[in-house]
Design a protein that fits this description.
By secondary structure, this protein is α/β, with parallel strands linked by helices. The protein has one domain: Spore Coat Polysaccharide Biosynthesis Protein SpsA, Chain A (Alpha-Beta Complex). Helix content is about 45%, strand content about 20%. It is globular and about 45 Å long. The protein starts with 6 loop residues before the first strand and ends with a helix.
Length: about 240
């Protein structure tokens, strides 16, 4: 392991029943980032969210990689919970979280690192998905995502174009806001960004597109309804409560 350089970036990777070969994909991405950011020490935190089918050989292989921590959370609580638990043990000054298969590749990680280095007034960076990404989504996910974008502009900020891309970056000083979120599911990021906007924290974005190898899964109506309820609780209902 590399111990001579201080950890400056932590990459948190929520994980739930990943596809076979996920540890090899992660190894490839680690090698890419080592080449793209040779002067930066990066730690990788795999936050397992109660997976039921993890291959022990994959986990064993994971633990042979440099600067990798495997955090085994036994109960499946949701992506928001997995990210909170992962960031809780992160040591980096910059913390970036994305999915275990790096669906947008490694370039957005490099871009985020550059933004934080060049702009001291920026404290949070989100991924902004392009039109091609949405064209490849299953119909229900596409409609839900487009509807969520519209609601974000109404209830959050008209300048926030995308809350649900699976990659975000933040300075360590923003961690208390992450830990203060209560939502465990996908829309926890709406809650987080709402908190940051209300505090006037500097926010930027990087444009992202999905790798050609990514296969998009569909959401059930039960999941879509649950996320719609969570969104209403975070935005509309909490807003009414704060006005009382």
């Amino acid at each position: 392991m590399k111990t001579e350089k201080q950890v400056t970036i932590s990459i948190v990777l929520p994980c739930y029943n990943p596809a076979p070969g996920w540890s090899r994909i992660l190894q490839t991405c680690i090698c890419e980032l080592e080449e793209k950011l040779p002067d930066v020490t990066i730690e990788y935190i795999v936050s397992n969210d109660g997976s039921t089918g993890l291959d022990s050989n994959e986990v064993d292989h994971l633990l042979t990689l440099q600067n990798v921590i495997f955090q085994d959370n036994a109960v499946n609580e949701g992506k928001g919970s997995a990210i909170r638990k992962g960031t809780l043990v992160a040591q980096g000054d910059i913390i970036i979280y994305t999915d275990i298969d790096f669906p947008f590749g490694t370039d957005p990680v490099v871009e985020m690192a550059q933004i934080f280095e060049q702009n001291p007034d920026c404290w949070f960076v989100y991924g902004n998905r392009n039109s091609e990404y949405f064209r490849n989504l299953p119909l229900k996910r596409k409609l839900f995502s487009k509807g969520l974008q519209l609601m974000n502009r109404i209830f959050l900020n008209k300048h926030i174009t995308d809350t649900q891309a699976g990659i975000k970056g933040l300075r360590r000083e923003v961690l208390p806001e992450v830990q203060d979120t209560k939502t465990n599911t996908f829309v926890f990021e709406v809650e987080l960004i709402r908190k940051l906007i209300r505090k006037g924290i500097g926010i930027d974005k990087v444009n992202v597109s999905a790798k050609p190898s990514i296969v998009f899964t569909d959401f059930s109506m039960k999941v879509l309804f649950r996320e719609a309820v969570n969104f209403a609780r975070i935005t509309i209902l909490s807003g009414l409560w704060s006005d009382l």
